[in-house]
Amino acid sequence: MLKLSALLILFTLFGFKPIENNKINIDRIKEALTFCKKNNMDTSIAIMVDMSIHSGKNRIFVYDFKQKKITIEGLCAHGVGGGSTPTKPVFSNKEGSYCTSLGKYKVKGRAYSNWGVHFHYKMYGLEKTNSNAFKRIVVLHSYTPVPAQEIYPQTLFGQSAGCPVLSDATMSKIDALLKTKKKPVLLWIYV
User: Fold this and answer.
1) Which of 73, 111, 158, 187 could be stapled to 47 by a disulfide with Cβ–Cβ 3.0 to 4.6 Å?
2) What's the mean pLDDT in 70-93?
């Protein structure tokens, strides 16, 4: 215990910070920033959703390109369709599939929602894997029963018909950021 205390004092005195457990691959971060620049999107943040992470763990991350770190993270539900299970999502771009679609999206346009904190953001699919998102009414929104903290080993399921669905608290934090953006923000769902 004494050694640990001494280490903490040294870290504090000399400004050392413990290495942050970065949950997003650095190559994916670089690709996201390049994509934002190339497509005239906001270059200060990106919303990254890693569907390879267990549904009971945080898997939506707001990455701040300037601070070079994750500033917001939370649980994110995946769609229930196509044979999806709580631990294995199935992905589809078909209308009526109730599945999450992989790929990059442009997030722009805040509107009223019947769910959660009563607002959502429009999502426009930018790839073949998610080109029907707007037609499918896939939006970024919250749903009050979604917990604000990790629930692993429990799962989060049955909350989504294909939309990325967040807790009210996480959605409120993301909303505070999105309301300040003049350009569309990248949201990227991947495995």
Assistant:
1) 187
2) 96
The Cα angle at residue 104 between residues 101 and 109, in degrees rounded to 5: 95
Predicted confidence (pLDDT) per residue in 135-184, tens digit: 999 999 999 999 999 999 999 988 899 999 999 999 999 999 999 999 99
Average pLDDT in the chain: 91
- Please state the pTM of the whole predicted model: 0.88
Reduced 3-state DSSP string for the chain = CHHHHHHHHHHHHHCCCCCCCCCCCHHHHHHHHHHHHHCCCCCCEEEEEECCCCCCCCCEEEEECCCCEEEEEECCECCCCCCCCCCCCCECCCCCCCCECCEEEEEEEEEECCCCCCEEEEEEECCCCCCCCCCCCCEEEECCCCCCCCCCCCCCCCCCCCCCEECHHHHHHHHHHHCCCCCCEEEEEEC
